[in-house]
């Protein structure tokens, strides 16, 4: 059902209003669906750059397009998903990353239905990014217990490499969730707060280092053999599997009017009800 919404409202303690809405559904796709179709490539770019080894990341990491694709639960199953894979070769990690092409996002509510499967030694990331001091993260480490998740507003360390006490929350997933199962991960970025949710339940909030600059949105699956991800066995792999991505956001070009000044003619839609096809 088509809905003509002027603004999109989140329905939480961190409720905010946004101008733009995007929904990318990777479920029930035909086996012939290609990610180079306009529906995907108009908004997302598949990354293909690499990083050389360094003392803190001893294994070369190369992002490759072939590690981003559509997969199905079974050979003839219509249940499909987007797969971002990190795999270990003798000399490197082959990893996967997609980046939203708009670089001018300023505040957003980002929701991703995802699970993580595979070998220890990789990190699944869902995050906003401008630079290393303007970044807000959801991260799942395959070396962790499957009920642990990491939420961070960067920078996570000071100039001496010491952890910033308010930057990161490493916690048990609420509601008994495990990242090996399908879960709705959500990051709300507003001027006052960063808030993280799992399956609609508030996990944590932060006021430390809320991103202030226009940013993009990135999903990736990566590893580099360093202390954060650990090292993966040669020949092994791990996947970030995504059923859908939903975003409402503002940009530096357009800032929506506040609730007080919204016109009676403006149609304001609750985000979750837009996905279900009603206001």
Automatic annotation (TrEMBL):
Positions of the GH16 domain: 24-253
Lipid bilayer topology: Lipid-anchor; GPI-anchor
Main subcellular localisation: membrane
InterPro entries, sorted: Beta-glucanase-like, ConA-like_dom_sf
Keyword Signal belongs to the record: no
Gene Ontology cellular-component annotations: plasma membrane
Subcellular location: Cell membrane
UniProt keywords, alphabetically: Cell membrane, Membrane
One of the GO biological process terms: carbohydrate metabolic process
Record has Cell membrane as a keyword: yes
Single Gene Ontology MF annotation: hydrolase activity, hydrolyzing O-glycosyl compounds
Xref: PANTHER family: GH16 DOMAIN-CONTAINING PROTEIN (PTHR38121), GH16 DOMAIN-CONTAINING PROTEIN-RELATED (PTHR38121:SF4)
Protein name stated in the entry: GH16 domain-containing protein
